[in-house]
Design a protein that fits this description.
Length: 298
Amino acid sequence: MLAYVHIPFCHRICPYCSFFKHTPGGTDIGAFVDAVVREARHRRSELPAPPRTLFLGGGTPSMLSPTHLARLVDGLRDALPADDLEEFTMEANPATFDARKARQFRELGITRVSLGIQSFDAGVLATLGREHDPDEAARSVELLRDAGLPSLNIDLMFSVPGQSLASWLATLERTISVHPDHVSAYNLTYEEDTEFLELRRQGRLDADPELDLRGFELAHRLLCEAGFEHYETSNYARPGHRSIHNQATWQGEEYLGLGPSAVTTIARRRARNVADTARYIGMVRALGHATADCEHLD
């Protein structure tokens, strides 16, 4: 049994991302946190067993204030319960935390951080709309290491418009040099409801399957030579650092999804929450849940 919490807030909307997300705007973050905990408490009776993994995704969970993050984690531990987790992952972006906040991650029991670096090339980062620069990205790795996080993943992306193989090679080499425990190397795809897809439809961006292949092969060769196991299509881990949550999802394990747009699949019933943060908060206050639609799987 897995648990996932979707935190949809981002300082900036990246042009390639199709997940439900938005800038905080006028959202009452405290009300959002309370709604997630209330939903968890309401849906606890659906769980066939306590969750063995908890994953805070988004969006950018690491942009929550220390007060809101602590309130969320403490509330989830009480509501689910989630005291005996095998793995507790949080997605984070460079430049959204300092040394003190990194220490808080560890104090809250987070065992794995998935860091959205994407590239160590300033030009590629600009194309992707990222807020950090290469040195900030490297510094964020140091902060998490100094805080004692047991496992660190770095997210990377290849086949980005304008990205050369030489740039991808340099990013891979710098990634290896900062000694992560896990690397996710994603081939850029053009998803619905993204700026990149619209630009591609206008003929201003193009995909090159041959370049995709060469980027994939380069990542496979360098990361495996550096001691990583290639255990999923896009995922590489040092021994003992495979993502339990990701593997269980691939293997069809049941999961509870909390937050706007999150999906739950339990006992062959697949339900999706409303993809609207204000409506989500209102529905949970009124009903205890925010289910928008569901289906029964054969």
